[in-house]
Design goal:
CATH architecture: 3-Layer(aba) Sandwich
Bound molecules: NADP nicotinamide-adenine-dinucleotide phosphate
Structural class: alpha/beta
Radius of gyration: 18 Å
Oligomer: single chain
CATH topology: Rossmann fold
Helix content: 40-55%
Number of domains: 1
CATH class: Alpha Beta
Strand content: 5-15%
CATH superfamily: NAD(P)-binding Rossmann-like Domain
């Protein structure tokens, strides 16, 4: 279904080779956007390009968001071709779960570098570019409910996502006169490859047995939230309820979160 809001827009999706990011690319192209899809794996990006019908509107760029130079090269490549970026969606993410003692230092580093540093590098380099544009752009951080609810066995992942939330909140205040919109969006549980690299004994039951949304549906809701322009948006009703509880009834929220089965 075409969304008039994205027709002709230049949209950069980071973390676009699979899961929610790839679903976003499909929907944005169907809406008439010009899309730059970036992720590490050239093979998965090539597969994505083969799947889409609107391939003339798609540019794929391999990038590792953990490297600030690669982020800079990506942005200058896009800038040279298009002269503007209307929307950038930061969807790159890595999820390691499990009891505290099972989280290795390499895993912790990878989560911080992918979920937080990469977002920092993007914001630091893209904000000044967007500020030069006549029509200011929008940068979206795809966060996680864990950033606010931190269920058992997700504490390190939660911390890496919460760092990104704090960064966006601070920058929203710092750049409030710039005209660039900074949005934080919280998908609910979505059926993707996230966490599937982990051995079964590290996957908490709440992660495995809960009902999951299809990635395409998540992308659809996410783009609706971007079009609505709310600075923070949870994509499911149950998440919105949990966030309300966390704010207004913290002791009940604490009991619910702590009781999530592992
Ligand atoms: N699935 C859920 O239930 C859920 C719920 C809430 C929030 N989220 C968030 O949604 C986002 C997308 O998650 P997903 O479920 O779609 O995960 P996914 O299927 O594992 O996709 C993650 C994407 O990030 C890319 N990526 C990972 N490391 C990267 C790096 N260093 N540089 C560039 N790209 C990198 C991956 O591509 P390459 O491997 O090719 O680089 C892939 O395209 C994440 O931020 C996650 O925290 C997911």
């Amino acid at each position: 279904m075409e969304r008039p809001g994205f027709r002709g827009k230049v949209v950069l999706v980071l973390g676009a080779s699979g899961g929610i990011g790839a679903a976003l690319v499909h929907r944005l192209l169907a809406s008439g956007a010009q899309v730059i899809a970036a992720a590490r794996s050239p093979e998965r990006l090539a597969m994505l390009a083969r799947e889409v019908e609107e391939s003339a509107q798609l540019l794929t760029c391999p990038v590792d968001v953990r490297d600030p130079q690669q982020v800079a090269d990506l942005l200058s490549q896009v800038w040279e071709r298009t002269g503007r970026i209307d929307l950038a969606i930061y969807c790159a993410g890595i999820e390691y779960l499990g009891p505290l003692k099972t989280i290795g230092s390499a895993e912790l580093e990878e989560m911080m570098a992918t979920n937080f540093y990469g977002l920092f590098f993007l914001l630091q380099q893209l904000l000044p570019l967007m500020e030069q544009q006549r029509e200011k752009g929008t940068i979206v951080s795809v966060s996680s409910p864990m950033a606010r609810l931190a269920f058992p066995w997700a504490s390190a992942y939660a911390a890496s996502k919460a760092a990104g939330d704090a960064l966006l909140t601070g920058l929203r205040r710092e750049c409030r006169r710039s005209g660039v919109r900074l949005l934080t969006i919280y998908p609910g549980p979505t059926a993707t490859g996230a966490g599937q690299q982990l051995p079964p004994e590290r996957l908490p039951r709440w992660h495995e047995h809960g009902q999951k949304m299809e990635a395409g549906r998540c992308a659809e809701l996410l783009l609706r939230a971007v079009a609505a322009g709310q600075t923070q948006r949870a994509l499911t009703r149950s998440l919105r309820l949990l966030f309300l509880l966390e704010r207004w009834l913290p002791s009940l929220s604490e009991r619910i979160c702590a009781g999530m089965p592992v």
